[in-house]
Amino acid sequence: MRLLTALIGGWSILMAQVPSSGGLPLYGYRIVNVYPHDAGAFTQGLQYLDGYFYEGTGLNGRSSIRKVTLETGKVLQQRTVPGEFFGEGITVWKNDLFELTWQSHVAFVYDRATFEPKKRFTYPGEGWGLTSDGTNLVMSDGTDELRVLDPVTFAEKRRIKVTAGGIALRNLNELEYMKGEILANIWMTDYVARVAPDSGRVTAYIDLRGLLTATERANTDVLNGIAYDAKQDRLFVTGKLWPKLFEIKLVKKGE
Q1: Which of 17, 127, 144, 221 has its C-alpha lying 20 to 30 A from 169's C-alpha?
Q2: Mean pLDDT of the 94-107 span
Q3: What is the CATH number of domain 23-252?
């Protein structure tokens, strides 16, 4: 189960993914607003659209898709995922809401308005994060590759190999498309990579450490949840079991 706990050997792999000083551009943040977030939601996917959040949550027996208000964090609509599935990333494409599952090799497609199931697709490997560039779906699977998928057939069209300074960047998790870039949360860190879709090169990192207090963080899991409001140019982030959702502005460090 992809929780915060990890074996010591896993930490050596993790540390290789954390940006070192002096390489690529590094951005911090300024908090614009803080909103309530369901502390029981094991957030796996997040999208802001037409005034609401669409959120996918994980864990076997606790996975769901939700429609949530920004200001209050109230869940307006929810569909529980069958207990044998561990829900993962979600995205909305036209009138459909797509949801990945972790190790079941199944993607569910729901009616965006009613949350009624419409169809399902299968895929090899694990499902982690999901977003859309408006034409295609983009999926992460925990490796250093992003899959570009046809939203009608779910067929794989190509792969984007993600590199940072020429080194493969693994553990790509929750995804969001913003201003022509893919934002990719690096699992088990508080960093987000800004990825150029054409080349797969990381153009910069975003350092999101310190959003929660030490006391708050002790009762939560990892950062995971990125949503962009294109109409009002707002960026939102949260995490698994986080009690808060943050609207932030990116600030380049060193300026």
Answers
A1: 221
A2: 97
A3: 2.120.10.30
